[in-house]
């Protein structure tokens, strides 16, 4: 009975995600088709012979960002006392990218990375891999939000039409700060555990306490400086991917607009509410970039091209996965449970 209920729950969740994907997608297509000068020929006009090289540059930017992102993930894993070679982790990272892009969800790749670490490091690495991967994802979203705030303060603060878009970034930034404080602060952690002890059973509460202890291993000024620098490079390169995809379809727009709008699009894409981020991502991008004078068709195609570039690059992960699933399976992760 429990298996049937579990399957029914999965089907219902998938159906909800399908609705959240399809409804915004409908409005996106309607906005394009209802444009006064819309023509099917517009799709052919967007792509010309000289529009190929920006896509190669976008592919290069995304590839470089994956190298720096994997290095950040490695540093976080080492703080959890999981020692694995960078080349090996890079393979696991690309397998995770493949699962993120080709599975019906946007967190499947993270689960695959945690699973691979567990298979090679043993049961003790499950919590370490989960903590490092979760924190890695959170910190990336946090840092890209900083870009939106910085661009808003530098270029859009005095523009009434654009200033209002700073508020979502402000609240998201405050939310991330509160979350990091709760996860990494010993005092707040103990306080939350006391509150949760009154809500959850003892067994679950013990696991939560252990989780807070793991996150507090990230209390290092040197670590935060390193991952901040890596995140700045990683997220900048990924925003440049959209910029060069825009050049590929003939959009002449300052990079500052991308640093202001793409973070909001990225936050929405990261939410597990649709299939692969489709629908809400394109609708938001269409609405935002319309304020910068970008037609609806071009703004949507930019997002689709950026996703296509991600798909092409993640095929390396498919290659690694098909060759053996978890690469270098005979090289176990070194785990040391002693606190640093």
The biggest beta sheet is recorded as: 2 strands, antiparallel
**Spatial order of strands in the largest sheet:** 1-2
Radius of gyration over all CA atoms, rounded: 21 Å
Overall strand count: 2
Series of secondary-structure elements, N-terminal to C-terminal: HHHEHHHHHHHHHHHE
Per the principal axes of the C-alpha atoms, what is the gross shape? globular
Distinct helical segment count: 14
> In angstroms, what separates the terminal alpha carbons?
46 Å
Low-confidence stretches at least 5 residues in length (pLDDT < 50)? 326-333, 335-340
By secondary-structure content and strand pairing, the structural class works out as: mainly alpha
**What is the mean pLDDT?**
83
What amount of the residues lies in strands? under 5%
Proportion of residues in helical segments:
over 70%
């Amino acid at each position: 009975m429990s298996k049937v209920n579990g399957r029914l729950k999965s089907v219902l969740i998938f159906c909800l995600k399908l609705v959240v994907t399809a409804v915004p997608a409908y409005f996106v297509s309607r906005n394009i088709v209802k444009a006064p000068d819309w023509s099917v020929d517009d799709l052919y006009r967007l792509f010309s012979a000289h529009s190929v090289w920006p896509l190669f540059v976008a592919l290069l930017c995304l590839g470089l960002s994956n190298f720096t992102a994997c290095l950040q993930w490695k540093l976080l894993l080492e703080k959890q006392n999981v020692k694995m070679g960078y080349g090996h982790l890079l393979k696991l990272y690309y397998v995770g990218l493949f699962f993120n892009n080709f599975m019906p969800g946007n967190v499947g790749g993270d689960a695959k990375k945690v699973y691979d670490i567990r298979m090679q490091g043993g049961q003790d690495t499950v919590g370490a891999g989960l903590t490092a991967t979760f924190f890695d994802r959170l910190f990336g979203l946090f840092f890209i939000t900083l870009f939106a705030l910085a661009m808003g303060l530098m270029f859009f603060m005095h523009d009434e039409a654009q200033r209002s878009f700073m508020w979502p970034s402000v609240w998201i930034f405050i939310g991330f700060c509160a979350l990091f404080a709760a996860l990494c602060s010993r005092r707040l952690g103990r306080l939350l555990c006391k509150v949760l002890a009154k809500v959850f059973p003892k067994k679950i509460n013990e696991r939560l306490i252990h989780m807070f202890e793991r996150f507090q291993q990230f209390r290092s000024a040197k670590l935060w400086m390193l991952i901040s620098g890596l995140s700045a490079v990683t997220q900048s390169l990924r925003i440049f991917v959209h910029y060069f995809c825009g050049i590929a379809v003939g959009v002449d727009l300052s990079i500052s607009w991308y640093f202001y709008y793409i973070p909001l699009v990225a936050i929405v894409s990261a939410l597990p509410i649709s299939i692969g981020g489709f629908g809400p991502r394109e609708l938001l991008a269409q609405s935002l970039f319309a304020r910068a004078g970008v037609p609806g068709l071009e703004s949507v195609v930019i997002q689709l091209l950026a996703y296509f570039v991600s798909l092409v690059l993640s095929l390396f992960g498919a290659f690694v996965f098909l060759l053996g699933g978890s690469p270098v399976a005979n090289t176990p992760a070194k785990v040391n449970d002693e606190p640093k």
